[in-house]
Design goal:
The chain has an eight-stranded antiparallel barrel. Strands 6-9 form a two-stranded antiparallel ribbon. It has a domain at 118-192 and 215-244 and 270-282: Porin, CATH 2.40.160. The longest helix has 25 residues, at 2-26. The chain is 14% helix and 35% strand. It has three helices and ten strands, in the order ααβββββββββαβ.
Length: 283
């Protein structure tokens, strides 16, 4: 019974396989899905515009504008050393090119000083004086400018009171060529040793003789001093001379009248000072 059952089992299996194959052959084959269209290819990149070529380097001007065309070209300056582009690398300091600026020499200029006063430049002057009760009467004057503001005058000469010697100091108010001044001095006179001859009027029947004794005076003056840059000097003064010694007129013979006594006062005693002097100032 067993072999028969195995045959039936194989037959049934074979019939099932045949039916399945027949059904597959009769059924239409399924259509495979079509693949999706491929995306369009990207457009090729547009090349960037090429940079313009740098212009050729202009020829360097020659050191001399008159250099002949056949002169050899000047050597080019050396190229700078390559720099290190690595991160953290230190840049080399720039090369210092020595300056070609021409050297300039500095000339010292002395400061311009204002001109000195004329009495500081010309400190000594010699004048000829003609005066009444002046330092010299008729004679020379020697002037020394201690300072533009301070001067000393020395005079010697002949006057009605005899030979005279005078010394005066004066203060100059300005330092310019022309300056007013004030001064004070002392005068000494020798007088006349011999009595004068008859000085009375011709119609008088008398003889009047006098004698001038030594005397001393104090002089107070004010005046004007002009000294130019070329040395010319003018000195004029007015003032008063005061007799400080005893009476310097001695009556030898005769008796003077009132008018004659007034004349003696004017000629020999205190009186007005009038003085003019001209000369030259030395450097």
């Amino acid at each position: 019974m067993k072999p028969h059952n195995d045959r039936q089992l194989w037959c049934a299996t074979l019939a099932a396989l045949l039916g399945a194959a027949t059904a597959r052959a009769q059924s239409p084959e399924p259509v495979a899905p079509s693949p999706a269209p491929a995306p369009p290819a990207p457009a090729p990149p547009v090349p960037a515009p090429a940079e313009p070529a740098p212009p050729p380097p202009s020829p360097e001007p020659s050191a001399s504008p008159l250099e002949p065309p056949g002169a050899p070209p000047q050597p080019e300056p050396p190229a700078p050393p390559p720099t290190d582009s690595r991160p953290g690398a230190l840049e080399a300091p720039p090369e210092v090119t020595p300056s070609t600026t021409p050297a300039v020499s500095v000339v010292g200029v002395a400061p311009v000083l204002p001109p000195r006063p004329v009495r500081a430049e010309r400190r000594l002057a010699l004048l000829g004086e003609l005066s009444w009760n002046g330092l010299a009467g008729f004679g020379p004057n020697l002037i020394f400018h201690v300072d533009p503001h301070l001067s000393i005058d020395l005079g010697a000469g002949l006057a009605f009171v005899g030979w005279k010697l005078g010394l005066r100091t004066r203060y100059n108010f300005l330092t310019s060529e022309t300056t007013p001044f004030i001064g004070a001095g002392i005068l000494g006179a020798t007088g006349f040793d011999a009595p004068s001859q008859d000085i009375a009027a011709d119609d008088d029947n008398r003889e009047l003789n006098i004698k001038a004794k030594p005397s001393a005076f104090v002089q107070l003056t004010a005046g004007l001093d002009y000294t130019d840059s070329d040395g010319f000097t003018f000195l004029g003064s007015i003032g008063y001379a005061i007799l400080v010694s005893r009476d310097n007129v001695e009556i030898v013979t005769g008796e003077p009248t009132a008018e004659e006594r007034r004349a003696f006062d004017v000629l020999f005693r205190s009186g007005l000072v009038l003085s003019v002097g001209l000369g030259y100032a030395f450097r």
